[in-house]
Design goal:
Distance between the termini: 39 Å
Shape: elongated
Number of strands: 10
Structural class: mainly beta
Largest sheet: 8 strands, antiparallel, barrel
Oligomer: single chain
CATH topology: Porin
């Protein structure tokens, strides 16, 4: 929880500094991603990641300098939809999560390229969950629904980077970002009533974004 508060304060500080920027660019766009989703179990539990192409975002980006001297800063937010989950034995769990990213996107521009570095956080809410029995003896359609020990709220950190090809009024951004949850997927007593087991969802997302420059100064 302390990590989450510190992260939120850092993001607010970086965004407040952006209000003093002199050169500004405003971009809106869409993103598609390839998601490798997993969960960190503590104590360790044998499992594997799952992969999904159901990863979409609508984004707003604000590039700016600070006090007219450092033209490397940016702020990005929007609305994202991720399909997440993991596989353990003959069971595969998939969840659909809607999230709000709040990211400082630092950039270095040269020629028609930008080098991007992302650092920030996100908050999200799980819309639905489906558990599939892959043994061949269960319901192939999966069982959908949450129980009282599932945590539907998620918040965590985002870190990553990439590059952009700038062809104003549009640009293409290619990125790899890692999302790590600071909240549990389940109540720690759900999987083991005797020994608490902590579950931290995480995703590695390779993405491409099409951004449109709506304003520049």
């Amino acid at each position: 929880m302390k990590k989450g508060i510190t992260l939120a304060l850092t993001i607010i500080l970086l965004f407040s500094l952006s209000l003093k920027g002199q050169n500004r660019e405003h971009l809106v766009g869409i993103r598609w991603g390839y998601n490798i989703s997993n969960v960190t179990f503590d104590p360790v539990k044998e499992h594997t990641a799952i992969k999904s192409t159901k990863n979409y975002s609508v984004l707003y980006t604000y590039y700016h300098d600070i006090w007219g001297a450092s033209p490397y800063f940016g702020f990005q937010t929007g609305l994202s939809f991720w399909q997440t989950g993991y596989k353990s034995g003959n069971i595969e769990e998939q969840t659909d999560l809607i999230s709000l990213p709040l990211v400082s996107q630092f950039h270095l521009d040269f020629w028609k390229l930008r080098v991007l570095l992302n650092l920030g956080g996100y908050g999200g809410y799980r819309l639905n969950k489906t558990v599939y029995d892959l043994s061949g003896t269960g319901d192939a359609a999966g069982v959908t629904g949450f129980d009282d020990l599932d945590n539907r709220i998620e918040f965590g950190i985002i870190a990553g980077g990439g590059f952009a090809v700038v062809l104003k009024p549009v640009e293409l951004q290619f990125e790899a970002n890692y999302n790590y949850s600071l909240s549990y997927l389940y109540n720690p007593r759900k999987l083991n009533e005797t020994v608490p087991q902590y579950t931290y969802p995480n995703q590695l997302i390779f993405s491409v974004s099409l951004m449109y420059h709506i304003k520049q100064r």
